[in-house]
């Protein structure tokens, strides 16, 4: 399998280098990916919970007899 | 107000790369602007990450993202500067790229530095992301290198990166 590379551009000399990642860099990337996935999942779960609560609230209002227009006016 | 805008360096990838580094940034400007057009070379949209002076743990972020279905926001500490979800992948529409800009004012100042970022993904489907981040980079050394990477995987061929310097006189 091809080892991942990184590109480095020296802004003083203009030289561009393509460098293979070290084992430590690959391991660090994998750890960071896990941490990022955890954070994203937490944020998306929170957003989904808010959306579900909103939908449940709207359903309860509808069950009380409010029209869709009345519900929309209430939650604006 | 800045009155110059100079291209320092540009890089367009001819092969995929896990990261792109701008090193030895000249200490001759007032502010820096980093503009990118990026895509991942595998499946799964990604966050765009910026590491400053090699540090991956000195950014404190307040972030905002919208997917077309939901808007979320939050904070994170001891992080890269990061714009969430804006890098399209092979799971998104072919040949689409996300666009982003980071602004780094007073990059030579001997003080902690604010960094702002804004980006949009591209996808011909219901879900496509827009994101923004306000970050404080907690190091007082002048900024001399910037590293762009994804949370996982590599940038695709054709991804491009432009670093500009701005002077206020």
Q: Which SSEs are present, and which pair or pack?
A:
The complex is a heterodimer of chains A (76) and B (169).
Chain A: E1 5-10, E2 16-20, H1 23-63, H2 68-75
Antiparallel strand pairs in A: 1-2
Chain B: E1 6-12, E2 19-23, E3 31-38, E4 46-52, E5 59-66, E6 71-79, E7 81-87, E8 98-104, E9 113-120, E10 130-137, E11 146-150, E12 160-166
Antiparallel strand pairs in B: 1-12, 2-11, 3-8, 3-12, 4-7, 4-11, 5-6, 5-10, 8-9, 9-10
Give a description of the structure:
The complex is a heterodimer of chains A (76) and B (169). The model of chain A has no long low-confidence stretch (mean pLDDT 88). Chain A has two helices and two strands; from the N terminus they run ββαα. In chain A, strands 1-2 form a two-stranded antiparallel ribbon. In chain A, a hairpin with a 5-residue loop joins strand 1 and strand 2. With 169 residues, chain B is mostly beta strands. Chain B is built from no helices and twelve strands. The radius of gyration of chain B is 15 Å and the shape is globular. Chain B starts with 5 loop residues before the first strand and ends with a strand. Chains A and B meet through strand 1 and helix 1 of A and strand 1, strand 2, strand 6 and strand 7 of B. Strand 1 of chain A pairs parallel with strand 2 of chain B.
From the structure above, extract its key features.
heterodimer, A: 76 residues, alpha+beta, two-stranded antiparallel sheet, 2 helices, 64% helix, 14% strand, elongated, B: 169 residues, mainly beta, Jelly Rolls, 8-stranded antiparallel sheet, 12 strands, 51% strand, globular
